[in-house]
Amino acid sequence: MTKNLEETADKSSLKNIVHEHKESLTQVTLQAEEKIKMAVSETSESLQQEVKSFLGVVQEQIKHFHDDVHEQVDVIREKLSSSKDTLLELKDNLLNELKHTVDELSKIGKDIKVEVDSISAKSKEHFSESYHRVKENTSEAVDKLKQKVDEKN
Question: Which parts of the sequence are annotated with region: Disordered (predicted)?
């Protein structure tokens, strides 16, 4: 009879231990999920700010380029209307203005590429840091659970 009571007590305590660990694991999982959500949210907010800043810079560069093109067109119009240059000189002027425009576009393209690369690198870095923080926190929680299990066994 005593043996049955001990077995029943052992089964009951084992069920309690399993239940406690299940609750602990559930709690740790929820905490890890919350930390992941927070890290993703922080990264998302940071990236949104970077994108807004980047878009502002790009729009400003496009506006400057637009203004430069209009100025160059006005210069060409003036040369056409007030000058008696030969067609060859006019062609040379147009080619020079187009080369200048292409150079400006190349510079803007390079600037945009640098900005996009910078944002991509920051995004990867933020994600990597968040991932490692969550991984460490989850590993610590799992280790604590294992220690509790080992202590009770």
Answer: 130-153
